[in-house]
Write a structure and sequence with these properties.
257 residues, alpha+beta, Beta Polymerase, domain 2, 5 strands
Length: 257
């Protein structure tokens, strides 16, 4: 289920410049369902890659993607690529989607170079209570999206049908509950559990087996538990930005050598 070869050839950021890549989203969480075999599935194949472009992108006037980010979408493939400095800056502010790449199960990594492994080995640099704000912020966004629908992308039409069927976006509902649970876990020990032990229950939510009232009641409870976990957390307040900067320099140098 790797990236199609023609996409690799067309995009050097996915191959030649790549230092770290892995599955994200439903595949990484153990919640992917095949749209070809499951009638209600609206899952893409989501991948994140990190790249270090040639040196002229650092000393010349070239810019990678849009502010260090490039999105590649085709059919079921939804790939986001970050230039290494952009990726590390997002790690430092606790972006949940980006942080997850450092805690994947081994089977969900596609490619890990020496420079990519260096980032994974130093993931504790990015552990801190500041992550609570990012996770709960994303969770509130999913809470809003549940009933304010924007059905776009590869399976947008099918997703709209499911929203009409259940009266709310069940996929956003599953994201909401997952994000809050991951936030609570992270505040306790600074570890992200990406492949979800509660995947089956989250799939129930995604498949519309929970009512909107049930989802809201569980999210209300989890928001309170998450705040309590934050207030009692022994994690550092925020990352050591000097350490983050040193890591960034080392990663770029290693990839360029």
């Amino acid at each position: 289920m790797g990236i199609p070869k023609d996409l690799l050839k067309q995009n050097p950021c996915l191959f030649e410049w790549n230092i770290l890549s892995g599955y994200r989203g439903s595949i990484a969480h153990g919640m992917w369902t095949n749209p070809k075999t499951e009638a209600n599935s609206i899952d893409d194949k989501d991948i994140m890659t990190i790249c270090v472009p040639p040196i002229d992108y650092y000393f010349g006037i070239k810019e990678f993607g849009s502010r260090g980010t490039k999105e590649i979408k085709r059919d079921e493939w939804d790939i986001v690529t970050y230039e290494a400095r952009k990726f590390i800056s997002l790690l430092a502010v606790g972006n949940p989607n980006v942080l997850s790449l450092l805690w994947l199960d081994k089977k969900h990594y596609i490619d890990v170079t020496e420079a990519g492994q260096l980032i994974i080995n130093n993931r504790q640099i990015f552990v801190g209570r500041h992550v609570y704000r990012s996770f709960t912020g994303y969770a509130y966004a999913q809470l809003h999206k549940m009933t304010h629908i924007a059905c776009e992308g590869y399976l947008g039409g099918k997703r709209k049908e499911l929203v009409n069927k259940y009266g709310f976006d069940t996929k956003n509902s599953a994201h909401l509950i997952r994000l809050l649970r991951m936030s609570i876990e992270f505040m306790k020990d600074g570890e992200l559990i990406v492949e979800r032990p509660d995947a089956q229950q989250l799939l129930e939510i995604k498949r519309g087996e929970w009512t909107l009232d049930q989802v809201k009641a569980e999210s209300d409870r989890l928001f309170k538990v998450a705040e309590e976990a934050y207030l009692s957390s022994a994690l550092p307040k925020s990352p050591d930005m000097e350490a983050v900067n040193r890591l960034c320099v080392d990663v770029v140098r290693m990839a360029q050598s």
